[in-house]
Write a structure and sequence with these properties.
The chain is α/β, with parallel strands linked by helices and 381 residues long. It has 17 helices and twelve strands.
Length: 381
């Protein structure tokens, strides 16, 4: 199987599985506990039907939208995800370049493997900086200041990860940073030598967002310990309100799922929220972002930009979310599997395929711009 044989999400996932050592593949693919929420993220879209209109004159389709003050050419963005250079040596450089080619927004994680400053200098498309809330308040301030100096306009605070989820696939393989592989996990690296060759022949793996502030090198601090020792589970709304005021610009909370929390986010001055269960990687058995979308849009959609992520595999999934009131839809595994399969070329093919689907599906819906997608165009079963 080659890149040209990939036509949908599942094809890219299959190609990534062939090319990655299984501990790394399972890190991307896996969820928490029994992975109930991971599966539900995609199946939730199947409980909603689209109701198309016809004879609307749909030759020209405009997919552009504005979210958190950023004008983007597609109603999807590449969500911030950690450790991308483990999946492919190009890492976030491939993600940023592919996003720029399609004129959309991309995110850089605190656990990113390329510095946000480098990407901000090189690319003109909007960049989101995703960060976590640390026990060290000075560190929180320093990280926000660094983002501001880099020219980043949108700050995204992840609020559903005050502790790491129970990802049993990783426990079985010994996946961690640095690697502490089981015998079975180590064998999987041995039978995929090209990954290892690429890993050792390119620049040394690092976490530049954190390296500037914390000693993440060697065995001093694994990712797991970072979550359990550095992050502050005592974080409250008062803490976030101070950060929103300090940032003084577009500020988004990622991981909001209840109507009450959505209202609170609007009350303290956030300009956006991402409804997200972290791709099913945190609280297994939790509801899906798509299932919460309608109620939250009705409650706060006129006060704050509502986005969702999780389980998106088709253009029709995006259209359903937009029709219900999402301003944009975040992609995670949708671009990570293509990244792992073929670097920048993989992401460009995947996003290009999604764009083709969106244009075709918009025409079939009788819409020429995303703001024509309305709540009366969907019906829940």
């Amino acid at each position: 199987m080659r890149l040209n044989d990939c036509h949908n999400f599942h094809d890219f996932q299959t190609l990534a599985r062939k090319r990655l050592p299984s501990p790394i593949y399972n890190y991307i693919a896996g969820g928490a506990d029994d992975e109930v929420t991971l599966r539900a993220n995609t199946s939730s879209f199947e409980r909603c039907d689209l109701i198309p209109n016809v004879l609307r004159g749909v030759e020209d389709v405009d997919l552009s939208t504005t979210v958190m003050g950023q004008k983007i050419d597609l109603p999807v963005y590449l969500s911030p995800t950690a450790l991308q250079r483990l999946f492919h040596h190009q890492g976030e450089r491939a993600t940023a370049a592919a996003a720029e080619k399609f004129g959309t927004m991309f995110g850089v994680s605190s656990l990113g493997t390329v510095s946000m400053e480098e990407l901000a200098k090189k690319h003109s498309n909007p960049q989101v900086y995703q960060f976590y809330f640390h026990k060290d308040r000075g560190l929180n301030h320093a990280m926000m200041q660094k983002a501001k100096e880099s020219g980043i306009k949108v700050m995204m605070l992840t609020v559903d990860s005050i502790t790491g989820g129970n990802r049993e696939r990783d426990l079985r393989t010994g996946f961690s940073i640095p690697f502490r592989l089981t015998v079975a996990g180590a064998l999987q690296f041995a039978i995929k030598p090209m990954w290892g060759i690429n890993y050792v022949t390119h620049e040394k793996f690092s976490l530049p967002q954190l390296d500037a502030h914390i000693d993440m090198k060697g065995d001093s601090l694994t990712i797991g310990r970072y979550f359990t020792e550095m992050l502050d589970p005592s974080m409250t709304w008062d803490d976030v309100e101070k950060m929103v005021a300090e940032w003084g610009g577009e500020f988004c909370l990622k991981g909001v799922m209840s109507v009450e929390d959505a209202k609170r986010a609007a009350d303290i001055g956030c300009t956006g929220i991402v409804l997200s269960n972290h791709g099913g990687r945190q609280l297994d058995g939790s509801t899906t972002a798509f299932d919460q979308l309608d109620e939250i849009v009705q409650a706060v959609g006129d006060r704050i930009d509502v986005m969702i992520d999780g389980g998106v595999q088709r253009g029709t999934h995006v259209l359903k979310a937009l029709a219900i009131g999402a301003k944009a839809v975040g992609l995670g595994r949708y671009y990570l599997f293509p990244l792992a399969a073929a670097g920048q070329a993989g992401i460009e093919r995947a996003v290009g395929k999604l764009k083709e689907e969106l244009v075709r599906d918009m025409r079939l819906m009788g819409c020429t711009s995303v703001n024509q997608l309305t709540r009366d165009m969907v019906k829940f079963k």
